[in-house]
Protein backbone atom coordinates (compact mmCIF):
# COMPACT_ATOMS: atom_id res chain seq x y z
CA UNK A 1 0.00 0.00 0.00
CA UNK A 2 1.38 3.48 -0.77
CA UNK A 3 3.30 5.11 2.08
CA UNK A 4 1.15 7.21 4.37
CA UNK A 5 -2.04 6.54 2.39
CA UNK A 6 -5.23 4.85 3.53
CA UNK A 7 -7.78 3.37 1.15
CA UNK A 8 -11.27 4.84 1.00
CA UNK A 9 -14.26 4.03 -1.17
CA UNK A 10 -13.97 7.19 -3.27
CA UNK A 11 -10.68 6.12 -4.90
CA UNK A 12 -12.21 5.56 -8.37
CA UNK A 13 -15.62 7.11 -7.78
CA UNK A 14 -17.13 8.20 -11.10
CA UNK A 15 -14.27 6.77 -13.20
CA UNK A 16 -15.85 3.53 -14.40
CA UNK A 17 -17.76 5.05 -17.32
CA UNK A 18 -14.51 6.49 -18.73
CA UNK A 19 -12.22 3.51 -18.19
CA UNK A 20 -12.81 1.38 -21.27
CA UNK A 21 -12.56 4.32 -23.65
CA UNK A 22 -9.76 6.17 -21.91
CA UNK A 23 -7.27 3.44 -21.04
CA UNK A 24 -4.90 2.08 -23.66
CA UNK A 25 -5.19 -1.69 -24.24
CA UNK A 26 -2.62 -4.25 -23.17
CA UNK A 27 -0.43 -5.79 -25.87
CA UNK A 28 -2.32 -7.99 -28.35
CA UNK A 29 -2.17 -11.69 -27.59
CA UNK A 30 -1.22 -11.41 -23.92
CA UNK A 31 -4.01 -13.77 -22.82
CA UNK A 32 -2.89 -16.37 -25.36
CA UNK A 33 0.68 -16.13 -24.06
CA UNK A 34 -0.49 -16.60 -20.48
CA UNK A 35 -2.68 -19.55 -21.45
CA UNK A 36 0.26 -21.17 -23.22
CA UNK A 37 2.68 -20.45 -20.37
CA UNK A 38 0.34 -21.89 -17.74
CA UNK A 39 -0.98 -24.77 -19.85
CA UNK A 40 -4.59 -23.64 -19.54
CA UNK A 41 -7.13 -25.96 -21.15
CA UNK A 42 -10.53 -24.39 -20.46
CA UNK A 43 -10.90 -25.90 -17.02
CA UNK A 44 -10.25 -24.44 -13.57
CA UNK A 45 -11.12 -21.10 -12.03
CA UNK A 46 -9.77 -17.55 -12.46
CA UNK A 47 -9.84 -14.75 -9.87
CA UNK A 48 -9.23 -11.13 -10.91
CA UNK A 49 -8.57 -8.92 -7.87
CA UNK A 50 -9.34 -5.27 -8.55
CA UNK A 51 -11.02 -6.25 -11.81
CA UNK A 52 -12.30 -2.75 -12.60
CA UNK A 53 -14.65 -2.78 -15.61
CA UNK A 54 -13.47 -6.24 -16.69
CA UNK A 55 -10.44 -5.17 -18.73
CA UNK A 56 -8.52 -8.43 -18.18
CA UNK A 57 -11.04 -10.92 -16.86
CA UNK A 58 -13.40 -10.67 -19.84
CA UNK A 59 -10.87 -11.68 -22.55
CA UNK A 60 -9.16 -14.16 -20.19
CA UNK A 61 -12.30 -15.93 -18.93
CA UNK A 62 -12.57 -18.16 -22.01
CA UNK A 63 -9.62 -20.23 -20.79
CA UNK A 64 -11.51 -21.28 -17.62
CA UNK A 65 -14.70 -22.99 -16.51
CA UNK A 66 -15.44 -20.11 -14.16
CA UNK A 67 -14.07 -16.63 -13.42
CA UNK A 68 -14.66 -14.30 -10.48
CA UNK A 69 -14.05 -10.55 -10.61
CA UNK A 70 -13.58 -8.73 -7.30
CA UNK A 71 -13.58 -4.95 -6.95
CA UNK A 72 -14.56 -2.56 -4.13
CA UNK A 73 -16.08 0.03 -6.46
CA UNK A 74 -19.74 -0.66 -7.32
CA UNK A 75 -19.59 1.50 -10.43
CA UNK A 76 -16.75 -0.61 -11.82
CA UNK A 77 -18.75 -3.80 -11.30
CA UNK A 78 -21.82 -2.33 -12.99
CA UNK A 79 -19.68 -1.41 -16.00
CA UNK A 80 -18.00 -4.84 -15.95
CA UNK A 81 -21.38 -6.57 -15.98
CA UNK A 82 -22.58 -4.38 -18.84
CA UNK A 83 -19.48 -5.18 -20.89
CA UNK A 84 -19.78 -8.90 -20.13
CA UNK A 85 -23.35 -8.86 -21.45
CA UNK A 86 -22.35 -6.99 -24.61
CA UNK A 87 -19.47 -9.42 -25.26
CA UNK A 88 -21.52 -12.53 -24.45
CA UNK A 89 -19.22 -13.62 -21.59
CA UNK A 90 -21.38 -15.83 -19.36
CA UNK A 91 -18.97 -17.55 -16.98
CA UNK A 92 -18.02 -14.57 -14.78
CA UNK A 93 -19.35 -13.74 -11.32
CA UNK A 94 -18.88 -10.27 -9.82
CA UNK A 95 -18.16 -9.68 -6.12
CA UNK A 96 -17.92 -6.29 -4.42
CA UNK A 97 -15.05 -6.56 -1.94
CA UNK A 98 -11.59 -5.27 -1.19
CA UNK A 99 -8.55 -7.49 -1.64
CA UNK A 100 -8.11 -7.38 2.12
CA UNK A 101 -11.57 -8.99 2.52
CA UNK A 102 -10.43 -12.17 0.77
CA UNK A 103 -10.94 -15.13 0.79
CA UNK A 104 -14.65 -14.21 1.11
CA UNK A 105 -15.59 -17.89 0.85
CA UNK A 106 -14.77 -17.88 -2.86
CA UNK A 107 -12.95 -21.21 -2.87
CA UNK A 108 -9.80 -22.28 -4.71
CA UNK A 109 -8.42 -20.95 -8.00
CA UNK A 110 -5.98 -22.00 -10.69
CA UNK A 111 -4.92 -18.41 -11.54
CA UNK A 112 -5.21 -15.13 -9.61
CA UNK A 113 -4.61 -11.87 -11.51
CA UNK A 114 -3.79 -8.35 -10.35
CA UNK A 115 -3.92 -5.91 -13.27
CA UNK A 116 -2.45 -2.61 -12.05
CA UNK A 117 -4.29 -3.09 -8.77
CA UNK A 118 -1.82 -4.78 -6.42
CA UNK A 119 -0.20 -1.49 -5.33
CA UNK A 120 -3.49 -0.31 -3.80
CA UNK A 121 -3.54 -3.22 -1.35
CA UNK A 122 -1.84 -4.33 1.86
CA UNK A 123 0.46 -6.36 -0.35
CA UNK A 124 2.12 -8.71 2.11
CA UNK A 125 -1.21 -9.62 3.67
CA UNK A 126 -2.97 -10.01 0.33
CA UNK A 127 -0.15 -12.05 -1.23
CA UNK A 128 -0.25 -14.48 1.71
CA UNK A 129 -4.02 -14.84 1.37
CA UNK A 130 -3.82 -15.42 -2.38
CA UNK A 131 -1.20 -18.14 -1.85
CA UNK A 132 -3.70 -19.96 0.36
CA UNK A 133 -6.50 -19.53 -2.19
CA UNK A 134 -4.53 -21.02 -5.07
CA UNK A 135 -4.53 -24.69 -5.88
CA UNK A 136 -1.09 -26.33 -5.55
CA UNK A 137 0.79 -25.41 -8.72
CA UNK A 138 -1.53 -22.47 -9.36
CA UNK A 139 -0.30 -19.08 -10.57
CA UNK A 140 -0.41 -15.49 -9.38
CA UNK A 141 -0.07 -12.85 -12.12
CA UNK A 142 0.83 -9.16 -11.87
CA UNK A 143 0.02 -7.30 -15.09
CA UNK A 144 0.95 -3.71 -15.97
CA UNK A 145 2.13 -1.39 -18.70
CA UNK A 146 5.90 -1.45 -19.08
CA UNK A 147 7.14 1.84 -17.67
CA UNK A 148 10.54 1.78 -19.43
CA UNK A 149 10.50 4.07 -22.51
CA UNK A 150 10.94 2.25 -25.80
CA UNK A 151 14.44 2.34 -27.29
CA UNK A 152 12.96 2.62 -30.80
CA UNK A 153 9.83 4.76 -30.57
CA UNK A 154 7.77 4.85 -33.74
CA UNK A 155 7.26 8.13 -35.61
CA UNK A 156 3.81 9.52 -34.93
CA UNK A 157 1.58 10.80 -37.74
CA UNK A 158 -0.25 13.11 -35.34
CA UNK A 159 0.68 15.10 -32.22
CA UNK A 160 1.03 13.01 -29.06
CA UNK A 161 -1.39 13.71 -26.21
CA UNK A 162 0.25 16.37 -24.00
CA UNK A 163 0.31 14.24 -20.87
CA UNK A 164 2.85 16.38 -19.00
CA UNK A 165 0.76 19.50 -19.55
CA UNK A 166 -2.41 17.64 -18.54
CA UNK A 167 -0.80 16.60 -15.26
CA UNK A 168 0.33 20.19 -14.69
CA UNK A 169 -3.21 21.46 -15.31
CA UNK A 170 -4.57 18.88 -12.89
CA UNK A 171 -2.11 19.91 -10.21
CA UNK A 172 -3.16 23.53 -10.68
CA UNK A 173 -6.70 22.49 -9.78
CA UNK A 174 -6.01 19.81 -7.15
CA UNK A 175 -2.65 20.70 -5.62
CA UNK A 176 0.93 19.66 -6.24
CA UNK A 177 0.75 16.32 -4.42
CA UNK A 178 -0.97 13.54 -6.32
CA UNK A 179 -4.48 12.84 -5.06
CA UNK A 180 -5.92 9.39 -4.35
CA UNK A 181 -9.41 9.21 -2.92
CA UNK A 182 -9.55 11.42 0.17
CA UNK A 183 -5.77 11.15 0.64
CA UNK A 184 -2.58 11.94 -1.24
CA UNK A 185 0.35 9.91 -2.59
CA UNK A 186 3.44 11.71 -1.34
CA UNK A 187 5.78 9.05 -2.76
CA UNK A 188 3.60 7.70 -5.57
CA UNK A 189 2.62 4.05 -5.81
CA UNK A 190 5.07 1.31 -4.75
CA UNK A 191 6.81 -1.29 -6.90
CA UNK A 192 8.92 -4.27 -5.88
CA UNK A 193 6.27 -6.89 -6.61
CA UNK A 194 8.79 -9.68 -7.03
CA UNK A 195 10.09 -9.30 -3.49
CA UNK A 196 6.56 -9.28 -2.09
CA UNK A 197 5.64 -12.49 -3.92
CA UNK A 198 8.88 -14.21 -2.90
CA UNK A 199 8.32 -13.25 0.74
CA UNK A 200 4.81 -14.73 0.58
CA UNK A 201 6.24 -18.09 -0.57
CA UNK A 202 5.66 -18.09 -4.32
CA UNK A 203 8.16 -20.03 -6.42
CA UNK A 204 9.34 -19.96 -10.06
CA UNK A 205 9.09 -16.17 -10.14
CA UNK A 206 9.37 -14.97 -13.73
CA UNK A 207 8.97 -11.90 -15.91
CA UNK A 208 7.48 -11.69 -19.36
CA UNK A 209 7.35 -8.63 -21.61
CA UNK A 210 4.93 -8.71 -24.52
CA UNK A 211 5.67 -6.14 -27.21
CA UNK A 212 2.95 -4.03 -28.70
CA UNK A 213 4.47 -1.34 -30.90
CA UNK A 214 1.22 -0.38 -32.60
CA UNK A 215 0.51 3.31 -33.17
CA UNK A 216 -3.10 4.30 -32.54
CA UNK A 217 -5.08 7.47 -33.08
CA UNK A 218 -6.86 9.06 -30.13
CA UNK A 219 -9.57 11.68 -30.20
CA UNK A 220 -9.85 14.53 -27.74
CA UNK A 221 -12.78 12.66 -26.16
CA UNK A 222 -10.51 9.62 -25.70
CA UNK A 223 -7.91 11.73 -23.91
CA UNK A 224 -10.55 13.34 -21.69
CA UNK A 225 -11.77 9.84 -20.84
CA UNK A 226 -8.20 8.84 -19.93
CA UNK A 227 -8.04 11.76 -17.51
CA UNK A 228 -11.30 10.92 -15.73
CA UNK A 229 -10.48 7.20 -15.63
CA UNK A 230 -7.54 7.85 -13.27
CA UNK A 231 -7.63 7.81 -9.49
CA UNK A 232 -5.67 11.07 -9.28
CA UNK A 233 -8.00 12.82 -11.72
CA UNK A 234 -11.31 11.13 -10.84
CA UNK A 235 -14.31 13.35 -11.58
CA UNK A 236 -15.36 13.77 -7.95
CA UNK A 237 -12.01 15.32 -6.98
CA UNK A 238 -12.80 18.50 -8.90
CA UNK A 239 -16.09 19.10 -7.09
CA UNK A 240 -17.86 22.22 -8.32
CA UNK A 241 -14.88 23.04 -10.57
CA UNK A 242 -15.32 19.92 -12.69
CA UNK A 243 -16.82 21.82 -15.66
CA UNK A 244 -14.14 24.52 -15.44
CA UNK A 245 -11.41 21.88 -15.45
CA UNK A 246 -12.85 20.05 -18.45
CA UNK A 247 -13.20 23.34 -20.35
CA UNK A 248 -9.54 24.17 -19.68
CA UNK A 249 -8.50 20.61 -20.55
CA UNK A 250 -10.26 20.70 -23.90
CA UNK A 251 -8.76 24.12 -24.67
CA UNK A 252 -5.31 22.67 -23.95
CA UNK A 253 -5.99 19.79 -26.31
CA UNK A 254 -7.10 22.18 -29.06
CA UNK A 255 -3.84 24.10 -28.68
CA UNK A 256 -1.89 20.92 -29.36
CA UNK A 257 -4.11 19.50 -32.10
CA UNK A 258 -6.54 21.83 -33.83
CA UNK A 259 -8.59 18.96 -35.26
CA UNK A 260 -8.64 17.07 -31.95
CA UNK A 261 -6.79 14.00 -33.24
CA UNK A 262 -3.70 12.59 -31.52
CA UNK A 263 -1.44 9.58 -31.96
CA UNK A 264 0.59 7.46 -29.57
CA UNK A 265 2.43 4.18 -29.49
CA UNK A 266 0.86 1.51 -27.31
CA UNK A 267 3.09 0.53 -24.37
CA UNK A 268 4.48 -2.97 -24.04
CA UNK A 269 2.91 -5.16 -21.39
CA UNK A 270 4.94 -6.39 -18.42
CA UNK A 271 3.82 -9.57 -16.66
CA UNK A 272 5.32 -10.92 -13.46
CA UNK A 273 4.12 -14.28 -12.25
CA UNK A 274 4.86 -16.95 -9.70
CA UNK A 275 3.64 -20.39 -8.74
CA UNK A 276 2.29 -21.92 -5.55
CA UNK A 277 4.69 -24.77 -4.77
CA UNK A 278 3.48 -28.32 -5.10
CA UNK A 279 3.41 -30.41 -1.92
CA UNK A 280 6.75 -32.07 -1.26
Summarize the structure.
The protein is of the alpha/beta class. The chain is built from 9 helices and 11 strands.
Which homologous superfamily in CATH is the superfamily? Vaccinia Virus protein VP39
Amount of helix: 25-40%
Helix/strand order, N-terminal first: HHEHEHEEHEHEEHEEHHEE
Instruction: Kindly report how far apart the N and C termini lie.
Output: 33 Å
The figure for the number of domains is: 1
Strand content: 15-25%
- Output mean pLDDT: 96
Unreliable stretches: none
* Total number of helices: 9
- Computed over alpha carbons, the radius of gyration is 19 Å
Annotation keywords:
280 residues, Rossmann fold, seven-stranded mixed beta sheet, SAM-dependent_MTases_sf, Diverse_substrate_MTase, transferase, methyltransferase
Structure report:
By secondary structure, the chain is an alpha/beta fold. It has a single domain, classed as Vaccinia Virus protein VP39 (Rossmann fold), CATH 3.40.50. 32% of the residues lie in helices and 24% in strands. The protein is built from 9 helices and 11 strands. The chain has a 7-stranded mixed sheet with strand order 3-2-1-4-5-11-8, sandwiched between helices. α5 (123-133) packs across α7 (193-200). The longest helix has 15 residues, at 242-256. The radius of gyration is 19 Å and the shape is globular. The two termini are 33 Å apart. The mean pLDDT is 96. GO terms for molecular function: methyltransferase activity. Keywords: Methyltransferase, Transferase. Pfam families: Methyltransf_25. It comes from Micromonospora yangpuensis. InterPro entries: Diverse_substrate_MTase (IPR051052), Methyltransf_25 (IPR041698), SAM-dependent_MTases_sf (IPR029063).
